[in-house]
Amino acid sequence: EAGVTQFPSHSVIEKGQTVTLRCDPISGHDNLYWYRRVMGKEIKFLLHFVKESKQDESGMPNNRFLAERTGGTYSTLKVQPAELEDSGVYFCASSPMAKAAPLHFGNGTRLTVT
Amino acid sequence: KQEVTQIPAALSVPEGENLVLNCSFTDSAIYNLQWFRQDPGKGLTSLLLIQSSQREQTSGRLNASLDKSSGRSTLYIAASQPGDSATYLCAVKETSGSRLTFGEGTQLTVNP
Questions:
Q1: Contact between B34 and B82 (Cβ < 8 Å)
Q2: Which of A17, B45, B91, B111 is the most interior residue, by most CB within 10 Å?
Q3: For position B15, what pLDDT does the model report?
């Protein structure tokens, strides 16, 4: 089966611009998560979708970040406007509905804001 | 608030050594604990998943143990190889919610 796929793999944008990251989860996985690792820090949770519904978005840093999962398939994470501190690696993960199931991660999108 | 700590932050060993990576967490109310491997520029690969009711899991040369009451897990790697060089991450899922809380990782280098 295909794994979790993220696009683009790298993105370099200027401060104030907009960037949209995309995640395609493993087919049939209802749970979709976004995580982020900024330089020198641990990977941190951003939000969790169950199908198309936001289950937990308590990790979103501020209202410049908008995540969507229309139709419960792929998800997008938009940053608008981007700031320097948004630089980092954004990971997407998916899992089946069973809470005991492991999470499967994508390769991440490395975002650099200059 | 759950906090996960991994010790050591970095480790360099000669090929063939057996080694132990440590993970500790502050809140013992966890649902499960997952060990990941991350290669440079790559995503996270799940290595082992231990449910809260389990004490250990094994896969090949890897063995992970869990002591929930003391808030500790160890990842044991037997007969290390240069291909084991990577960053190893520990993450816990709490009983409430589905988010994972990660440690900062242990960067392992196995020298030929």
A1: no
A2: B91
A3: 97
Q: Report chain A residues touching chain B, CB-CB < 8 A.
A: 4, 6, 31, 33, 35, 41-45, 48, 55-56, 59, 91, 93, 99-100, 102-108
Task: Answer whether B25 touches A (CB < 8 Å).
Answer: no
Helix (H, G, I), strand (E, B) or coil at A85: helix
Cα dist from A27 to A3, A51, A74, B96, B102, whole Å: 9, 12, 10, 26, 25
Q: What is the DSSP letter of A30?
A: -
Contact of B98 with chain A, judged by CB distance below 8 Å, is answered with yes
A44, A48, A108 ranked by CB distance to B98: nearest: A48
Beta bridge partners of residue B88, listed in sequence order: B37, B106
What pLDDT, in 10s, does the model give residues A18-55? 999 999 999 999 999 999 999 888 999 999 999 999 99
Whole-angstrom Cα distance, residue B71 to residue B68? 5
* Run of H or E residues at A37: strand A31-37
Judge whether B111 is closer than 8 Å to chain A, CB to CB: no
